[in-house]
Amino acid sequence: EKECDNLIELPGKYDNIPFIVVGSEAVYRYEQGYDQGLSKDKVIEQINRVKKNVSVPVTTAEPFHVWLNNSDLADAVDMLFINIHPYWEGIPIDDAVDHVLQKYREVNDAYPDKCVVISETGWPSDGNSKGQAQPSIDNQKKFIKNLIESARKEFVNIFYFEAFDEKWKKELNEVGPHWGLYYSNRASKYPIDLRPTPSPTPSPTSKATPTLTPSLTPTSTQSCPSDGDVNEDGKLTAKDALLAFQYVLGKTSLTSCQQSHADVNGNGKVTAADALCIFKAVLNGSSPSETLLCE
After folding, report:
1. What is the pLDDT of residues 106-149, one digit of tens each?
2. Most CB within 10 Å of its CB: which of 54, 57, 163, 184?
3. What are the φ/ψ torsions at residue 158 (nearest 5 degrees)?
4. With b meaning 16 or more CB within 10 Å and e meaning fewer, what string describes 124-153?
5. Which of 138-142, 147-151, 161-165, 262-266 is predicted least confidently?
6. Higher-pLDDT residue of 276, 229
7. DSSP string, the chain
8. Could you count the other beta carbons within 10 Å of the beta carbon of residue 111?
9. How big is the CA angle at 272 (ends 205 and 154), to the nearest 5 degrees?
10. What value does the CA radius of gyration of the chain take, rounded to a whole number of Å?
C-alpha cells in the first residue's frame, strides 16, 4: 500500500515520468508460493487504484505466460510489460533470441489492441548452466548482439536486463550477480555499440502497432515536423513522451500541430509506438533536429 502511495505521488513531483510499473512478477511469485507475491486480484486492485490517481500510463511486469493465461490482468493495464528470460527456460544460446521474439509475438497476437514491450530479457555472463543454457561472457555478447539486430528488424521495444552486475544478488545457479553488460565497478565486459542505427522499412506483412487515437488533422509538415517535440519548446524531453502517452490514453488533447510533432513514425496517427519512440530518443540524447528512427 505504501509503495503504491509513493507511486501515485511521484508524477506530481517530477515531470520526467512517462509511465508507472506497479510491481514486477508479483502474480508469478504468488503462483510459485513466494512470500513477495500478490494475488492477481490484489495486483489488479492496486493497478486500478494507481490509474485513478495519475495521468500517465500504468502497467505491471510479468513473464509472458502470465499474460497469456490472464486476460483480465491484461485488460487492467494500459500496455503490457513482458519478461522473457531464455536462460531460465534452459534454451541454448543459438536459439535464445528466436525464443524471445516468438514469445513476444504470442503475446502481441493475443492482445492486438495493446502496446507490448519486452520489459526484461538478458543472459548471464557467469554462473552454472540451466539445461542447455550456458552462462559465459561470449554467450552474453552473442545474445545482446543478435537481440539488438533482430529487435530492430521487427521493431520490438526492449528494456535489456541489465546494465550493471549486482554483486549482492543471490540466485539459483549462482547467476544472480552476472546479468550486467558492465561489471559492478562500471567497467565494460566487452565492446558494445548500443547507439541507434537506421532500421529497414517494415515489410507489408509486418503487424502494425494498434491505432488507439484518431487520424491526424492535415497540417503543414514544414511548420509542424514529426520531430517528437510535442510541447513545442524546442527540446526533446520526457515531457514530450508523457504528452504523447496521455493523448493516446485519451487523458489530454493536442493541437493538430502537436499531433504532427507526436507522429514520429509518420503514419498519420499518434499511437503508443510514437510515445515509446520519443522516450527512447530522450534516453539516447537525441534532439528535435535529428531524425527519430521508429516503426
Report:
1. 999 999 888 899 999 999 999 999 999 999 999 999 999 999 99
2. 57
3. -135, 135
4. bbebeebeebbbbeebbbbbbebbbeebbe
5. 262-266
6. 229
7. -HHHHHHHHHHHH-S----EEEEESHHHHHHTT-TT---HHHHHHHHHHHHTT-SS-EEEEEEHHHHHH-HHHHHHSSEEEEE--GGGGT--HHHHHHHHHHHHHHHHHH-TTSEEEEEE----SSS--BTTB---HHHHHHHHHHHHHHHHHHT--B--S-SB--TT---GGG-GGG--SB-TTS-BSS----S--PPPPPPTTSPPPPP-SPBPPP--TTTS-SSS-TT-SSS--HHHHHHHHHHHTTSS---HHHHHHH-TT-SSB--HHHHHHHHHHHHTT--TTSPP---
8. 18
9. 35
10. 20
